[in-house]
């Protein structure tokens, strides 16, 4: 044996031990933490100009309530316990100041407009019950109130138009259990095993067929998780038009395809064996097929985004800054998410972008389903904004904002983390080019955008509302629909109105329509509406006259009147339609912002319908009108319960007024047809159920503003693309080698229900 061999082996072993030790030490060394980032931003802090649009604070809401209690001279009952014959406060929200006042303050150095609240009250305890709206101010110490009902609506608002409060639904539940169901004990016990708690109700709207009606179908379901897809075949029509709850009565009953005068007749028919019975298998408490509990065990964690150098946006009070963007945000009780004073590179491009309404029209061969037309603003798209789940509803590291509202209560309610703001890398380039002709280079820009999101859960549906800000100056408004499909009991010719989703479950066909208000101010308040499109023209080739060429050319038209600017839902609309400024870019073109609608809507309800005027905004995919303070919204919360005499009829906004060089508003409608199918069980996915619009610069700038983004990447074949100063991506292993500061998971969605 070679005497040197043991020494060689010892040295080799030592080297191996050293290498392994280094590897273990390096693995054990903890990476540095990423820069700290705010996770929740409370809406407090120093005053700024954006606070003119800020939602009311809890203290302001409480002071308005105390003022109304002490200055109206009538008793006010807590709406959560009020009877229809009581007086109560339905809601308190911000009264947005007039635009002219706000612009004088923001742009002209004028006085800050007085801060005021809008209070909606139901006066049931009066000789002539009515709905009254008061403006209360100035806040934070209210000293006056004025009735604005007649000014806004041209007259008093009848009491029957009031949205149905939760207290009335509770009272209706008691009526069904103690009066209606008491008349059919044998049927309910033997068919449903009814014991008082094992059924759930879903109500329908509007309440009847003519003004003054307050008659509602209650559809019964098994009271299990996801009850919306567990119908049992029984529906009860209740007349609750009287302010005296003792006068409420059952008007009609429907069971398994047959109508009965009342529950007494249903019970008699059952006892005598004259009824076709369809027993439904009792579902477990988790709903079985409707349970959203995952059917698979946990596995590798899904990808997450994080910000290695902290967020690149800021949120102060209700004001957001992101790269060249700035805007104020808020949440209306009825209409939900809204933005104000939207600026790009310091210049205002829009004064207001806001959700107006979400409408669904259903079909079915059951009475409840066939009569349902949900106008969700009357229930409250802001009121039913739900707390967000970190990591699913929004990225884990997003900024979460608490919101407050006062609705059907004397006290404000706090919703933890009900709005989120985050920068989102979409995983694709905003623009790019790889050149392999003439010169060799690569240039590109990651598509990273800022998202503002809220999610409203209104009954069975969840609406994900987004406003998205891109680096090229574009804004997107988008809504994604998810949640449970509404369903009817499958019987008879039910498959004419949808698909079978389970043994007795008919997923009913329905439309979704969403309306937005977009008050663009492009290069100033005064704008015109211009349409560009294309047409083919035939010409002879100048170099070969015997040959014909078909070439597209640009068509241009200024739309002078509101009638010209109202585009019906399924009609052909110019593919380029934009708000034009009174100024031009470097190349002599009118600066503009283009409106691009993303929609695949179903058909609008026929205009011959007695209730169509209440939802006449849905006639149009786009309608541009003169902006008027007396036309702040396209609809009203009072239209739901009296669509036959609508409090606000959008069709009246369009009266052929001139819209050239005026302050204009675009009313945008997007939607989709939903025919529920088996993949909607357990519930509907957002994929394919997303609609909205884009606002895109059109000759507004001299070139794409995103070229000034710090995120741009460019290198040639002659450069060292591994050098950080040439290519920032080359430094990613260093700049992104940190551990994100993820906060512990919390959720407050089940508190204070």
TrEMBL record:
Tell me which cofactor or cofactors this protein depends on.
Answer: Cu cation
Matching entries from Pfam families are given as: Cu_amine_oxid, Cu_amine_oxidN2, Cu_amine_oxidN3
Q: Which GO terms describe its cellular component?
A: plasma membrane
Q: What Gene Ontology biological process does one annotation of this record name?
A: amine metabolic process
What are the record keywords, sorted? Copper, Membrane, Metal-binding, Oxidoreductase, TPQ, Transmembrane, Transmembrane helix
TM helices/strands, residue ranges: 7-26
| EC numbers | 1.4.3.-
Cofactor: binding details: Contains 1 topaquinone per subunit.
On this chain, the residues bearing 2',4',5'-topaquinone are 461
Mod. after translation:
Topaquinone (TPQ) is generated by copper-dependent autoxidation of a specific tyrosyl residue.
* Classification via PROSITE patterns: COPPER_AMINE_OXID_1, COPPER_AMINE_OXID_2, PROKAR_LIPOPROTEIN
Please name the InterPro entries in this protein's record: Cu_Am_Ox_Cu-bd, Cu_Am_ox_TPQ-bd, Cu_amine_oxidase, Cu_amine_oxidase_C, Cu_amine_oxidase_C_sf, Cu_amine_oxidase_N-reg, Cu_amine_oxidase_N2, Cu_amine_oxidase_N3
Q: Which residues form the Copper amine oxidase N2-terminal domain?
A: 76-144
Family, per entry: Belongs to the copper/topaquinone oxidase family.
Name this protein carries in UniProt: Amine oxidase
This protein's species is Cnemophilus loriae (Loria's bird-of-paradise)
């Amino acid at each position: 044996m070679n005497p040197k061999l043991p020494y060689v082996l010892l040295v080799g072993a030592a080297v191996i031990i050293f290498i392994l030790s280094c590897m273990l030490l390096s693995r054990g060394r903890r990476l540095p933490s990423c820069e700290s980032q705010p996770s929740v931003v409370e809406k407090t802090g120093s005053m700024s100009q954006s606070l003119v649009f800020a939602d009311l604070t809890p203290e302001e809401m409480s002071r308005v309530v105390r003022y109304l209690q002490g200055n109206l001279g009538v008793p006010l009952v807590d709406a959560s316990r009020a009877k229809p014959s009581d007086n109560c406060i339905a809601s308190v929200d911000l009264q947005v100041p007039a635009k002219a006042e706000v612009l004088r303050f923001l742009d002209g150095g004028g006085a800050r407009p007085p801060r005021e609240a809008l209070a909606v009250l139901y006066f049931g305890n009066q000789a002539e019950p009515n709905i009254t709206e008061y403006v209360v101010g100035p806040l934070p110490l209210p000293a006056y109130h004025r009735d604005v009902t007649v000014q806004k609506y041209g007259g008093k608002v009848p009491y029957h138009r009031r949205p149905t409060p939760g207290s009335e639904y509770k009272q209706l539940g008691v009526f069904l259990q103690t009066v209606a169901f008491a008349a059919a004990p044998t049927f309910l016990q033997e068919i449903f095993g009814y014991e008082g708690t094992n059924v759930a109700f879903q109500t329908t709207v509007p309440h009847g067929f003519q003004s003054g009606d307050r008659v509602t179908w209650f559809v019964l379901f098994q009271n299990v998780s996801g009850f919306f897809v567990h119908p049992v075949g029984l529906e009860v029509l209740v007349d609750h038009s009287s302010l005296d709850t003792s006068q409420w009565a059952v008007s009609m009953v429907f069971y398994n395809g047959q109508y009965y005068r009342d529950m007494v007749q249903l019970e008699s028919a059952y006892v005598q064996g004259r009824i076709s019975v369809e027993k439904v298998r009792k579902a477990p408490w988790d709903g079985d097929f409707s349970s959203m509990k995952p059917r698979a065990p946990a596995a590798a964690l899904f990808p997450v985004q994080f910000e290695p150098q902290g967020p690149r946006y800021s949120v102060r009070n209700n004001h957001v800054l992101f790269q060249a963007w700035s805007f104020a945000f808020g949440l209306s009780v009825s209409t939900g998410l809204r933005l104000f004073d939207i600026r790009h590179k310091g210049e205002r491009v829009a004064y207001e972008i806001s959700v107006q309404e979400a409408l669904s029209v259903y079909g079915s061969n059951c009475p409840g389903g066939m009569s349902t037309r949900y106008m969700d603003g009357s229930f409250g798209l802001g009121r039913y904004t739900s707390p967000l789940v970190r990591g699913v509803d929004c990225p884990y590291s997003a900024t979460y904002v608490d919101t407050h509202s006062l609705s059907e209560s004397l006290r404000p309610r706090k919703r933890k983390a009900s709005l989120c703001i985050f920068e989102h890398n979409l995983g694709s380039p905003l623009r790019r080019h790889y050149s392999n002709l003439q010169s060799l280079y690569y240039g590109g820009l990651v598509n990273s955008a800022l998202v503002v999101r809220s999610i409203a859960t209104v009954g069975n549906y969840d609406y994900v509302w987004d406003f998205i800000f891109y680096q090229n100056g574009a804004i997107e408004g988008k809504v994604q629909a998810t949640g449970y499909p509404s369903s009817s009991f499958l019987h008879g010719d039910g498959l004419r109105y949808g698909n079978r989703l389970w043994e007795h479950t008919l997923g009913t066909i329905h439309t979704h329509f969403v309306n937005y208000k977009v008050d663009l101010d492009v290069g100033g308040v005064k704008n015109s509406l211009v349409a560009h499109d294309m047409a083919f023209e035939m010409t002879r080739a100048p170099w070969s006259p015997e040959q014909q060429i078909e070439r597209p050319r640009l068509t241009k038209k200024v739309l002078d009147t509101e009638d010209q600017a109202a585009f019906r839902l399924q009609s052909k609309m110019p593919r380029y339609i934009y708000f034009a400024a009174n100024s031009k870019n470097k190349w002599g073109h009118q600066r503009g912002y283009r409106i691009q609608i993303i929609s695949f809507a179903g058909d609008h309800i026929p205009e011959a319908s007695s209730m169509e005027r209440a939802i006449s905004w849905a006639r149009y995919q786009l309608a541009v009108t003169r902006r008027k303070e007396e036309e702040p919204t396209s609809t009203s919360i009072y239209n739901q319960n009296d669509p036959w005499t609508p409090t606000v009829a959008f069709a009246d906004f369009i009266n052929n007024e001139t819209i050239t060089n005026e302050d204009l508003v675009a009313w945008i409608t997007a939607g989709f047809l939903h025919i529920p199918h088996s993949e909607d069980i357990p519930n509907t996915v957002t994929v394919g159920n997303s609609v909205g619009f884009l606002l895109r610069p059109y000759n507004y700038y001299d070139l794409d503003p995103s070229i000034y983004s710090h995120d741009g990447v460019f290198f040639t074949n002659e450069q060292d693309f591994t050098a950080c100063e040439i290519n920032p991506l080359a430094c990613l292993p260093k700049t992104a080698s940190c551990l994100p500061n993820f906060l512990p998971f919390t959720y407050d969605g089940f508190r204070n229900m």
